[in-house]
Design brief:
Layout: H1 2-17, E1 21-25, H2 36-43, E2 57-61, H3 66-76, H4 80-92, E3 100-102, H5 105-114, E4 118-123, E5 132-137
Parallel strand pairs: 2-3, 2-4
Antiparallel strand pairs: 1-4, 1-5
Length: 138
């Protein structure tokens, strides 16, 4: 019985670690799709506008979130530690500040729906119909 429980827990953890990530914008946005490189540029502060000309307002999840790690790996191509180092250097040199941080998927959804130009990421299993998915990294 305990072996079965351990195996079940292991499968759960593996499925959480390999969760899909989707990038979302407000349903009112006329941005239909973004490339991985466009998203990377926005979340690393290199591009300040969305393709439609609106100011880009990226929002991160908390460092404790497994989606934060998955996004950094799958979309930014960096470990979370490297992303933190990147932003520490940018802040120190006066070249920019990291995106605002919210605690979880629901907070990202709420933020994106209430801020013009907002762009965030959530677990693909959490994507509701009332936001627009512009990129999927499964």
């Amino acid at each position: 019985m305990s072996r079965l429980l351990v195996m079940g827990l292991a499968l759960f953890l593996v499925s959480q670690a390999s969760a899909g990530v989707v990038v979302i914008v407000s349903p009112d946005s006329n941005v239909a799709e973004l490339s991985k490189s466009q998203i990377k540029s926005i979340f690393l502060g290199k591009v300040k506008t969305l393709p439609n000309g609106e100011p880009a307002v990226p929002v991160n999840q908390a460092e404790e979130s497994p989606v934060y790690d998955a996004f950094n790996q799958k979309v930014l191509g960096k470990s979370s530690a490297k992303v933190l180092q990147y932003w520490a250097a940018r802040v120190f040199s006066g070249k920019g500040n990291p995106p605002e941080t919210v605690p979880d998927d629901q907070a990202v959804i709420d933020y994106v729906k209430s801020h013009k130009g907002a762009i965030g990421y959530i677990d693909s299993a959490s994507a509701p119909a009332d936001v627009k998915v512009v990129y999927s990294a499964d």
